[in-house]
Batch of 2 targets.
Target 1
Amino acid sequence: MMENKDLIWVYNYKKAYSLLMVFTVLWIFFVVYDYTIISQRPSILYQPIWMFQKIFMPHPVSNVLFYVVAVSSLALSIYNIYKKNIISSLLLFLGVLWLNAIKWNYGCTSAVGHTFVLAHLFSIIVPSFSFLSKKLNIYDSYSVKVSLIGVLVTYSMAGFWKFLSLAKTIYTKNFDQVSWLHSDAVELNAIVGRRSLDNTVSEFMFNAYQIPYFWEVATVLVFAVQLTAVLAVFSRVYASFVLLILVCFHLFNTFFNDVVFNVAPAVLLILLFPYHTFFKKDYLAFKDNLVR
Amino acid sequence: MSSKKRYYYQVTLFFFTVGMSVFSFVNTIKGGEGIYVFFYWKLYTKPSGWEYSAKDYRLYGVTKEFDTIRVDNKGYSLFDKDDYFYFINEESQGILASKNPKVYYADRIRAFATAIGVSYPEYLIVEEEFNPIDVYKNPLSYKTKVIFSTK
């Protein structure tokens, strides 16, 4: 019999997986909408960059192929809510992998959507918890945790590079250069980021960026949480903390720095939300119904 | 498949993805592209504009009377603000590195201009250099340098 603290992860992943499928349905509608726009672009601008794109979409994708993949992925998302298996989730992963790559065929690439695709990749091997016909095993909770680590490690990598850069600044004592710990860091970053889209930083935000120490502390906190994001699977409390800080970080960047990470905070919320505390009755019922 | 076996496959998959991220990083250093969807997440290790100097690239149109007009990044139906920024930025980087012949960029830039609904006899790609603090106080305080002309 599994302990409560391990069962929580299985229950939360069961909920998270269903929601990931619902979110995937919405995401596919968004991709279809996006496709109706980008497919009107002149084909001379079409320029695949990644090896993946060069192999699987060397020319502008045909309408028929696009809608076959989109509709199949839609059907698989709904199917997986009820009867997930390795084949159906592998096919859905391939579908979203392909659909996500379409937007980045016009001279630029971006990591937007990567965590979403990784969440799909790491869901393939995790067993379905929709209908519990077998006894749960401690290894099921381990599979869930590795699945989450697979997504969270992207944040740990991001944190690693930032601390490496900060360590270099401190080691070389080069404090005149603007690192993330410099008092001008956040406003420089915001002004440049917003100007790239011909937007300006509001006077209110510019003044807010002058508040002493607040931004330096917030920056170090966010970097530390990024670096240690993978540790979230060892403590449900820390997982909630990581979720809170990273979602705030994404939303701040979306609203004030025009960074479009619109999918990432949704994926984090879906994967790490503490469902067991919000749906306590449902969780207890889940626990009681387990095949012993 | 047993739960234990699934767990072992899951761990193998994890190390595979980390390996691919490392491979993406090495490949990028060598001047290649990352292996989609395995990125190495080296992002914003320093704040943008950390040298108190930054560069933006913009499309300009030249009229028959030889007036130059800045085509603002205001968001167009086929290219929103992000798309405009990414596209012009990538073309500019390619131009600066002389990655392709001039005619390649001229054709693409004309096609891009048509797609966002502007029409001029000649187009320029202009590098705008500025001090972020100055440009915050006065949006017009930037230096311009023409890096490409479709003529």
Target 2
Amino acid sequence: MPIHEKSLIRPENITTHDELVIEGVDVSGHWSTFIETRVIADYNEAMEEEIASLPGGENIHRCWQCGSCTNSCTVHAIEPRFNPRYWIYLIRTGMESELLRDKDLIWQCVSCNKCTYACPRDVVPEGVMKATAHWLEMKGHVPESPSMIFDKIFTEQIVEHGRIEDTKVLMQFLKRTNQPLMQDWLKQIVMNIAARLPMKWGLKSAWSFVFHPRTRGWKKAGAAIQDYIIEVEQHHKAALGAGASRAASNDNPPQRKLHAAE
Amino acid sequence: MSKPILIVGGGPAGLAAAHAAASVGHSSVLVEKTAILGGAPIQSGYAKLVPSGQWAKDAIGGMVSRVESNPKVEKKLNTVVKSFDGTPGNFVAELSDGTRAEVGSAILTTGFTHFDSVNKPEWGFGLFPDVVTTTQVEQMISSGKGVRCPSDNRKPKRVAILLCVGSRDRQIGREWCSKICCTVSANLAMEIREELPETHVYIYYMDIRTYGLYESDYYWKSQEEFKVKYIKARIAEVTSDGKQLIVKGEDTLVKRPITIPFDMVVHAIGMDPNVDNMTLSAVFGVDLHRHGYIERKDTYGVMGATSRAGVFVAGAAIGPETIDDSIAQANAAALNAIAAAAGNSTLQAAE
Amino acid sequence: MVDVTERAKQLREVAYYPGCALEGSGNGYDVSTRAIAHNLGLKLRDVKDWNCCGAMEVKNIDPKIQTYLSSRVLSQAVNATRNNVVMAPCNGCYHNLKKAEYDLANDQNSRDVVEKISAKAGHKTYEAGQAETIHALDWIKETIGEEGLRERTKGKLAGLKIANYYGCMYVRPRHIFPEKDQGPGSESTSKPHFMDDLLAAAGAENVEFPLKTACCGGAHTLSDSDMSTKLVLNILQAAEANGAEVIATECPTCHSGLEMHQIRAEKRFGKKTNVRILYFTQLLGLALGIGPRKLGIHTNISESIPFLVEKGLT
């Protein structure tokens, strides 16, 4: 079914009439949307600018819709609704409601960079996916994704110690996402190792779990990174707030932020 | 009497410049690095040319014989210029055959280099024999053998032409449109359909840039009269199932993945700067454009001017160019080169 | 033109950056890398007080923090370890150090942020061009080379069918690897071959494997496990379909991803695969006659020792 017809059969477009007679014929009941309006009534003109202001989104304006990102995409091959080219089009034209239909998919990007490798205009679609996922969270359209929770736990450990300990990241992630600590497949993995686990290795794991691996003399570096994180967070919030208010004012049309690479 | 003009490169532009100079009684030295005159259309064996429809070997062949028989043009084949010194009216060129040429000015008609498709390995060239370039299809047609799959010489039932191979692609540093490939591809698609009416021809595009009159004569005509199909998709990869080529991508207009078998895939290859441009730039002391072509100066004052007075440029040496526009530029450059050789000081910027 | 023998001599002693994964889940990669270095007479000097490269996770929080973290590792190599060639076996570390190098050479904004954080952290700011990052594959290829491996291994891996799996971070995006795709002798980003070359020199039979640079879904191995399992299953099944007995890996995230999701694919989707998963350094170590325990093969999640015994490799 062509793209322009797909919207017709979405559940919200199916209307019900208890009593509807057209030209003498009783057509009461469930009907598809040939009697519903399909006009695009508004564009969110701030959306592209806002996403472009977040890390990774800088080059979104270069896109000319060739489809190289989507056709090289790892996730698209498994989940056909994952379509970076289409989302970039929606963002650039400001079709926010259309984009929000896919809001729960966008964070699934696996950062394999196949799109970045293929893109003839160097849009860096992988970066755009990350920026869009951030934007959706910052605007409150979606709750924090599991991926973001994972990234935060990881980053927190680095800020604190300079290094991560992978078992600890795993445990904290399962805890914060309210998942049972012993998933059946994890249990299997632990059993596999335990079967031939020499005591020394077990002790080492336990040791590093209790005494987190750390970089000597890290304290100042960790503090400097923490300062920077707070700084960029404020900057991003300001960019999104400013974008929204600019779009609302006709006197002050949104202007493209020039990117250094251009 | 002013000194002759040095013309570097014996393709359509060089031949046109030599002929133009001779036609007003001015002699020239035509230096060509290969063993034959005619440039890309002859050396690469092009078929019918855009927009005349004449065979390349007739149209460009005629330009070659006209110059070959002209006593005003001194031809030097298998020769390159080693050094070029002096000022307008009084240049000395040392040539690779050990001779020197005293000339009044020079025109660089050094053309381009075809993009080498192995630089886009995802599209299968060099891996699968039935992935070919537009140049190879031109040769199939011009040789009279017809369009056949190289693997087993069969007539292809389905042909895909991929546009923008080596053009408009930041990933491989080609940030230009090669100008002619859309039109050439539409022309070849019609040639294929004419020879093999049962064969389906698909053109995969990002944009169609058949500018000016080419719109109706090639783009529309290929669709309306020859039923060539245009799909808006940039192909992800060309693979093979052992029997046929498989073309994968996204048909962007219907937002659906495509995995389509073809017998032959044609790369519409772009025009790279001549591989010798760094050397030419050093020998002649001319600036290059940031993309590697020879840079034009004073666009509105002196047609074909370069950064060095008395040295002019015409044709695809400047950037991707058609044959007929290359010839027009060469005629204009010849006029200015004659004036420069005579020490004419009216060659100034129109500012 | 670099003098090949000069270069080989230079690389006989490099700064070694194991990274977090090689201290933890990818310990077998670390152990086997050190074991073959010892066997081949190559010196590894651990980067002093190294920190995490930033990985993909920190890049997602903010790419400039990742650039800083990687720049500190390079700074430690140059200033504290006094060696300007950094060898990183982990694809993620290797990728991030390369990316930092590229960003610092090309983007003023990145330089400013790195300078600011470095100053606050109280160490020398890393300047682009001071160090060179190489992968473990480059390191063995350029020091011992195929000829050297042929002599030392006497084709010990003969009869072993291997699918070489390189993953994403070793080849993409191409602009951060300016030394790749430079014609004969250089590594290819579309069809990498360095691991194939080395294992072939040790006698192995490399099978045709179209998914060399496919993605294992390592980014979402926990946050979107089904996705990762499907991607890994594709890789495992393709390797088996092409006749591979072993998948050789060069990245701890890919490696443990393949191992974990091989188990998960069976538990969750009932799809069992038998292909063994080993680091290329473990395979080269076996070829050099080093025992499996010294190569950390018993610390892998997947079990391959009985198979290796059967093959006469231990």
